[in-house]
Amino acid sequence: MVTYSSRTQSALRELAAITRQYQSVAEGDRKTASSPSRHKVFVSYHAVDAVEVLQFIEENTGVFIPRAIGMEEDGSDIIDSTNVAYIRQTIKTKYLRDSTVTLVAIGECTWARKFVDWEIYTSLRSDPTPNGLLAVQLPSVAGSSPSIPARLSANLAPKNETGYANSYVPPASQSSLGSWIQHAFDGRTSRSSLLNVGGKLRERNSSCEPQ
Length: 211
What we know:
Blueprint: H1 6-21, E1 39-44, H2 50-59, E2 64-67, H3 84-96, E3 101-106, H4 114-124, E4 132-137, H5 150-153, E5 166-168, H6 174-190
Parallel strand pairs: 1-2, 1-3, 3-4, 4-5
Protein backbone atom coordinates (compact mmCIF):
# COMPACT_ATOMS: atom_id res chain seq x y z
CA MET A 1 0.00 0.00 0.00
CA VAL A 2 1.24 3.49 -0.87
CA THR A 3 1.74 5.84 2.07
CA TYR A 4 0.98 9.47 1.30
CA SER A 5 2.26 12.53 3.13
CA SER A 6 0.09 14.05 5.85
CA ARG A 7 -0.59 17.01 3.54
CA THR A 8 -1.82 14.70 0.78
CA GLN A 9 -3.97 12.71 3.20
CA SER A 10 -5.50 15.94 4.49
CA ALA A 11 -6.31 16.98 0.91
CA LEU A 12 -7.90 13.59 0.26
CA ARG A 13 -10.14 14.03 3.30
CA GLU A 14 -11.09 17.52 2.12
CA LEU A 15 -11.95 16.19 -1.35
CA ALA A 16 -14.31 13.67 0.22
CA ALA A 17 -15.85 16.43 2.35
CA ILE A 18 -16.40 18.70 -0.67
CA THR A 19 -18.16 15.88 -2.50
CA ARG A 20 -20.46 15.37 0.49
CA GLN A 21 -21.05 19.11 0.73
CA TYR A 22 -22.29 19.30 -2.85
CA GLN A 23 -24.09 15.96 -2.80
CA SER A 24 -27.59 17.44 -2.89
CA VAL A 25 -26.84 20.26 -5.36
CA ALA A 26 -28.72 19.66 -8.60
CA GLU A 27 -27.30 19.67 -12.12
CA GLY A 28 -27.64 23.17 -13.53
CA ASP A 29 -27.63 24.90 -10.14
CA ARG A 30 -26.04 28.36 -10.07
CA LYS A 31 -23.52 29.52 -7.47
CA THR A 32 -25.25 32.90 -7.38
CA ALA A 33 -28.29 34.29 -9.14
CA SER A 34 -26.10 36.01 -11.74
CA SER A 35 -23.57 33.21 -12.32
CA PRO A 36 -23.85 30.63 -15.13
CA SER A 37 -25.51 27.28 -14.57
CA ARG A 38 -23.12 24.52 -13.50
CA HIS A 39 -22.71 20.91 -14.55
CA LYS A 40 -21.90 18.10 -12.13
CA VAL A 41 -18.28 17.24 -12.87
CA PHE A 42 -16.51 14.12 -11.65
CA VAL A 43 -12.80 14.89 -11.25
CA SER A 44 -10.55 11.89 -11.94
CA TYR A 45 -6.98 12.22 -10.68
CA HIS A 46 -3.91 10.48 -9.25
CA ALA A 47 -3.85 10.66 -5.46
CA VAL A 48 -0.33 12.14 -5.45
CA ASP A 49 -1.91 15.25 -7.00
CA ALA A 50 -4.60 15.60 -4.33
CA VAL A 51 -3.31 18.93 -3.01
CA GLU A 52 -3.38 20.53 -6.48
CA VAL A 53 -6.72 18.96 -7.30
CA LEU A 54 -8.24 20.26 -4.08
CA GLN A 55 -7.04 23.78 -4.86
CA PHE A 56 -8.38 23.51 -8.43
CA ILE A 57 -11.80 22.44 -7.19
CA GLU A 58 -11.97 25.04 -4.41
CA GLU A 59 -11.13 27.80 -6.88
CA ASN A 60 -13.78 26.68 -9.37
CA THR A 61 -16.91 25.70 -7.45
CA GLY A 62 -18.55 28.67 -9.15
CA VAL A 63 -17.91 26.97 -12.50
CA PHE A 64 -18.91 23.37 -11.77
CA ILE A 65 -20.48 21.18 -9.09
CA PRO A 66 -17.67 18.88 -7.92
CA ARG A 67 -17.57 15.16 -7.32
CA ALA A 68 -14.33 13.33 -6.49
CA ILE A 69 -13.12 10.22 -4.70
CA GLY A 70 -11.44 11.14 -1.44
CA MET A 71 -9.88 8.81 1.11
CA GLU A 72 -10.55 5.73 -1.01
CA GLU A 73 -7.52 6.87 -2.99
CA ASP A 74 -5.16 5.41 -0.38
CA GLY A 75 -3.16 3.12 -2.62
CA SER A 76 -5.33 0.03 -2.09
CA ASP A 77 -7.92 -1.42 -4.44
CA ILE A 78 -11.23 0.40 -4.05
CA ILE A 79 -13.02 -2.57 -5.57
CA ASP A 80 -11.73 -6.06 -4.87
CA SER A 81 -13.03 -7.77 -7.99
CA THR A 82 -11.99 -8.81 -11.48
CA ASN A 83 -15.57 -8.73 -12.77
CA VAL A 84 -15.71 -5.84 -15.25
CA ALA A 85 -19.48 -5.40 -15.01
CA TYR A 86 -19.31 -5.27 -11.21
CA ILE A 87 -16.43 -2.78 -11.28
CA ARG A 88 -18.31 -0.52 -13.70
CA GLN A 89 -21.52 -0.63 -11.69
CA THR A 90 -19.79 0.05 -8.38
CA ILE A 91 -17.82 3.02 -9.73
CA LYS A 92 -20.96 4.40 -11.34
CA THR A 93 -23.26 4.08 -8.33
CA LYS A 94 -20.75 4.88 -5.58
CA TYR A 95 -18.48 7.43 -7.22
CA LEU A 96 -19.61 8.82 -10.59
CA ARG A 97 -23.30 8.77 -9.62
CA ASP A 98 -25.19 11.67 -11.22
CA SER A 99 -22.25 13.50 -12.80
CA THR A 100 -22.60 14.51 -16.46
CA VAL A 101 -18.98 15.39 -17.27
CA THR A 102 -15.70 13.72 -16.30
CA LEU A 103 -12.64 15.94 -16.01
CA VAL A 104 -9.28 14.17 -15.87
CA ALA A 105 -6.82 16.30 -13.90
CA ILE A 106 -3.48 15.65 -15.59
CA GLY A 107 -0.36 15.44 -13.48
CA GLU A 108 2.94 13.76 -14.22
CA CYS A 109 1.77 10.25 -13.26
CA THR A 110 -1.97 10.34 -13.97
CA TRP A 111 -1.49 8.03 -16.96
CA ALA A 112 -0.15 5.28 -14.68
CA ARG A 113 -3.08 5.06 -12.26
CA LYS A 114 -5.48 2.16 -12.89
CA PHE A 115 -8.31 3.89 -11.01
CA VAL A 116 -8.19 6.72 -13.57
CA ASP A 117 -8.60 4.20 -16.39
CA TRP A 118 -11.56 2.58 -14.63
CA GLU A 119 -13.21 5.96 -14.09
CA ILE A 120 -12.79 7.02 -17.72
CA TYR A 121 -14.11 3.66 -18.93
CA THR A 122 -17.17 3.85 -16.70
CA SER A 123 -17.79 7.47 -17.66
CA LEU A 124 -17.90 6.49 -21.32
CA ARG A 125 -20.23 3.56 -20.61
CA SER A 126 -22.73 5.51 -18.49
CA ASP A 127 -26.37 4.88 -19.39
CA PRO A 128 -28.43 6.23 -21.01
CA THR A 129 -25.92 8.95 -21.96
CA PRO A 130 -22.15 8.85 -21.51
CA ASN A 131 -20.39 11.55 -19.55
CA GLY A 132 -18.71 14.31 -21.47
CA LEU A 133 -14.93 13.96 -21.22
CA LEU A 134 -12.08 16.45 -21.03
CA ALA A 135 -8.59 16.67 -19.58
CA VAL A 136 -7.02 19.70 -17.92
CA GLN A 137 -3.36 19.95 -16.98
CA LEU A 138 -2.51 20.80 -13.40
CA PRO A 139 -0.12 23.72 -12.81
CA SER A 140 2.73 21.36 -11.86
CA VAL A 141 2.97 20.11 -15.46
CA ALA A 142 2.20 23.38 -17.25
CA GLY A 143 4.63 24.00 -20.07
CA SER A 144 5.50 20.31 -20.43
CA SER A 145 4.00 17.45 -22.36
CA PRO A 146 2.87 14.92 -19.72
CA SER A 147 1.73 11.47 -20.75
CA ILE A 148 -2.01 10.95 -20.65
CA PRO A 149 -4.13 7.85 -19.97
CA ALA A 150 -4.43 5.62 -23.02
CA ARG A 151 -8.24 5.53 -22.90
CA LEU A 152 -8.34 9.32 -22.86
CA SER A 153 -5.87 9.49 -25.73
CA ALA A 154 -8.11 7.20 -27.80
CA ASN A 155 -10.85 9.84 -27.59
CA LEU A 156 -8.72 12.80 -28.61
CA ALA A 157 -8.59 13.79 -32.27
CA PRO A 158 -5.54 14.44 -34.42
CA LYS A 159 -4.60 18.10 -34.78
CA ASN A 160 -7.24 20.28 -36.49
CA GLU A 161 -9.83 17.49 -36.33
CA THR A 162 -12.65 16.72 -33.92
CA GLY A 163 -12.68 14.09 -31.19
CA TYR A 164 -15.07 13.07 -28.45
CA ALA A 165 -12.76 14.59 -25.82
CA ASN A 166 -10.37 17.52 -25.64
CA SER A 167 -7.21 18.15 -23.63
CA TYR A 168 -6.26 21.57 -22.31
CA VAL A 169 -3.48 23.43 -20.52
CA PRO A 170 -4.32 25.03 -17.15
CA PRO A 171 -7.18 27.49 -17.72
CA ALA A 172 -6.36 31.18 -17.78
CA SER A 173 -9.82 32.07 -16.50
CA GLN A 174 -12.98 30.56 -15.07
CA SER A 175 -14.84 31.50 -18.23
CA SER A 176 -12.41 29.41 -20.28
CA LEU A 177 -12.86 26.44 -17.97
CA GLY A 178 -16.63 26.86 -18.09
CA SER A 179 -16.64 26.84 -21.89
CA TRP A 180 -14.47 23.69 -21.95
CA ILE A 181 -16.85 21.90 -19.60
CA GLN A 182 -19.85 23.00 -21.65
CA HIS A 183 -18.16 21.73 -24.83
CA ALA A 184 -17.61 18.36 -23.16
CA PHE A 185 -21.22 18.27 -21.96
CA ASP A 186 -22.54 19.07 -25.45
CA GLY A 187 -20.35 16.32 -26.91
CA ARG A 188 -22.35 13.67 -25.05
CA THR A 189 -24.85 13.90 -27.90
CA SER A 190 -23.26 15.96 -30.68
CA ARG A 191 -20.05 13.89 -30.82
CA SER A 192 -21.30 10.54 -29.53
CA SER A 193 -20.33 8.82 -32.80
CA LEU A 194 -16.69 9.67 -32.07
CA LEU A 195 -16.66 8.02 -28.64
CA ASN A 196 -14.13 5.20 -28.24
CA VAL A 197 -14.69 3.09 -25.13
CA GLY A 198 -11.46 1.18 -25.75
CA GLY A 199 -10.32 -2.23 -24.57
CA LYS A 200 -10.20 -4.04 -21.25
CA LEU A 201 -9.62 -2.27 -17.97
CA ARG A 202 -6.10 -1.65 -16.75
CA GLU A 203 -5.32 -4.38 -14.22
CA ARG A 204 -2.52 -2.69 -12.28
CA ASN A 205 -0.74 0.59 -11.79
CA SER A 206 2.34 1.33 -13.86
CA SER A 207 5.56 2.53 -12.29
CA CYS A 208 5.83 6.31 -12.30
CA GLU A 209 7.83 8.46 -9.94
CA PRO A 210 7.06 12.21 -10.00
CA GLN A 211 10.22 14.25 -10.58
